[in-house]
C-alpha cells in the first residue's frame, strides 16, 4: 500500500500545479487498488485507461495491442506527452523508449551515479547505502533511456543518513524529504517547457 500512497501523493501534487491531465495509468501490480484509491483523487480523465502490466507474462504482440506503441502511434492517438514512472519496477521495452525520446521520467532513490543500475531498486538501494556507510543519500529524477538509470538527470535532492537508520526507515525518509518533492517539481518544469536536454545533461530555464 505504500506504493499506492506514493503514487497518490505525486499525482495530487502534479494535479495541483495544473501540470496536465492523467490519461493512462499502467499498474505494475494491484491495478484494482489503483483504480479505487488513486484515480478518484487525481482528476483521472473519464476516457483514461488503467492497464494492468503483467510483469512475468507480457509478450510483445499483447503489449503492442494494449499500448499501440509502434512508431509513436499511441502517443499521437492518445495525446500522451509525458510518461512518469513512480515506483514502476518493470523494464521499459526499448521500442517505447524510442517512441518517447526524452518524454519518460523516472525517480530513483539515490543520488545517481551512486547506488544505481542493474539490481539497484526499492529497498536494495537503501541497504547498499547503509552497508557502504554513506553520510548522505537522496533521490534523483532523470529521463529514461535504453540503459538502467543512465538517462540525463533533471533534479536531485540530498537526504542525511542518521544513526540507527534501518533500510526501511531510510527509505521512508528519502520518500518524504526527497522523492515526494522533486518528482512533482520535475513534472511541473517539463509541463511548462522549462527543461531542455543537451547531450547527457539537462538545462532548466528560468
How is the topology of this model organized?
Layout: H1 2-16, E1 24-27, H2 31-37, E2 49-52, H3 60-67, H4 73-78, E3 83-85, H5 94-99, E4 104-108, H6 123-132, E5 136-143, E6 153-160, H7 167-191, E7 195-198, E8 201-204
Parallel strand pairs: 1-2, 3-4
Antiparallel strand pairs: 4-5, 5-6, 7-8
Give the gist of this structure.
The chain is α/β, with parallel strands linked by helices and 206 residues long. It is built from 7 helices and 8 strands; from the N terminus they run αβαβααβαβαββαββ.
In words, what does this structure look like?
It is a single chain. The protein is α/β, with parallel strands linked by helices and 206 residues long. The protein has helices at residues 2-16, 31-37, 60-67, 73-78, 94-99, 123-132, 167-191; strands at 24-27, 49-52, 83-85, 104-108, 136-143, 153-160, 195-198, 201-204. β7 and β8 (201-204) form a beta hairpin. The N and C termini lie far apart (37 Å).
Number of strands: 8
Low-confidence stretches: 55-66
Q: Overall 3D geometry?
A: globular
Write the element-wise H/E pattern from the N-terminal end onward: HEHEHHEHEHEEHEE
Q: Measured on Cα atoms, how large is the radius of gyration?
A: 17 Å
Strand content: 15-25%
Structural class: alpha/beta
| Arithmetic mean pLDDT | 78
Biggest β-sheet description: 4 strands, mixed
Amino acid at each position: 500500500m505504500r506504493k499506492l500512497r506514493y503514487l497518490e501523493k505525486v499525482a495530487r501534487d502534479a494535479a495541483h500545479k495544473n501540470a496536465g491531465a492523467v490519461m493512462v495509468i499502467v499498474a505494475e501490480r494491484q491495478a484494482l487498488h489503483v483504480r479505487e484509491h488513486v484515480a478518484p483523487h487525481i482528476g483521472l480523465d473519464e476516457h483514461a485507461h488503467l492497464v494492468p502490466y503483467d510483469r512475468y507474462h507480457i509478450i510483445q504482440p499483447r503489449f503492442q495491442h494494449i499500448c499501440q506503441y509502434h512508431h509513436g502511434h499511441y502517443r499521437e492517438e492518445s495525446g500522451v506527452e509525458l510518461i512518469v514512472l513512480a515506483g514502476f519496477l518493470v523494464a521499459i521495452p526499448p521500442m517505447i523508449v524510442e517512441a518517447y525520446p526524452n518524454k519518460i521520467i523516472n525517480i530513483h532513490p539515490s543520488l545517481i551515479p551512486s547506488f544505481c543500475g542493474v539490481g539497484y531498486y526499492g529497498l536494495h538501494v537503501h541497504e547498499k547505502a547503509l552497508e557502504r556507510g554513506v553520510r548522505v543519500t537522496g533521490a534523483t529524477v532523470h529521463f529514461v533511456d535504453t540503459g538502467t538509470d543512465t538517462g540525463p538527470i533533471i533534479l536531485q535532492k540530498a537526504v542525511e543518513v542518521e544513526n540507527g537508520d534501518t533500510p526501511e526507515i531510510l527509505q521512508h525518509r528519502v520518500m518524504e524529504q526527497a522523492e515526494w518533492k522533486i518528482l512533482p517539481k520535475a513534472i511541473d518544469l517539463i509541463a511548462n517547457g522549462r527543461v531542455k536536454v543537451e547531450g547527457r545533461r539537462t538545462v532548466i530555464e528560468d
